Amino acid sequence: MRPAGPVHQALVAAAQQGPATLRELAQRAQVGWQAARDTVPYLARTGVLRVVGEKHVDYRNRLVHVYEAAPEPDPVQATAAANDGEGIENRSGHGWVDLNRCIDGWAR
Fold first, then answer.
1. HSE of 8 in the Cβ direction (CA atoms, 13 Å)?
2. Sign of the Cα pseudo-torsion (42, 46, 50, 51, in order)
3. Please, is 107 exposed, middle or buried when counting C-beta atoms within 10 Å of its C-beta (0-12, 13-18, 19+)?
4. Would you call 67 exposed, middle or buried from its count of C-beta atoms within 10 A (0-12, 13-18, 19+)?
5. Phi, psi dihedrals of residue 56, rounded to the nearest 5°
6. Tens-place pLDDT, residues 22-81
């Protein structure tokens, strides 16, 4: 994985100062609006930032997302979960299919 670039680092530092919209994050981080517009959704998708709400602003008719820095995961819990196999074996959420149930239904 590549190291975080300067725009990434500046936006994360700006988000750690408190909740803000994309435009406010760009102003705090002193990066261009287009660079922030490209980077903030990526940071939200990867879990570095999280959307905490929506806000009405004067410069747009629609609501805009308010972002904040996501809390750091506890390394002790993450290590214990990796060692115990938690999260690997329990695949019962959305998008996962129990293969045995599929084969049983097909074989009937």
1. 10
2. positive
3. exposed
4. buried
5. -90, 130
6. 999 999 999 999 999 999 999 999 889 999 999 999 999 999 999 999 887 666 665 555
pTM of the model: 0.66
CB contact burial 22-51 (16+ within 10 A = b; e otherwise): bbbbbebbebeeebbeebbeebbeeebbbe
Question: Residue 108 in 3-state DSSP?
Answer: coil
How many whole angstroms separate alpha carbon 22 and alpha carbon 40?
7
Q: Give me the residues paired with residue 67 across strands.
A: 20, 51
pLDDT score for 90: 53
The helix/strand count (H/E) of the chain reads as: 5, 2
Residue 60, Cβ density class (10 Å: 0-12 exposed, 13-18 middle, ≥19 buried): exposed
Q: Is 51 helix (H, G, I), strand (E, B) or coil?
A: strand
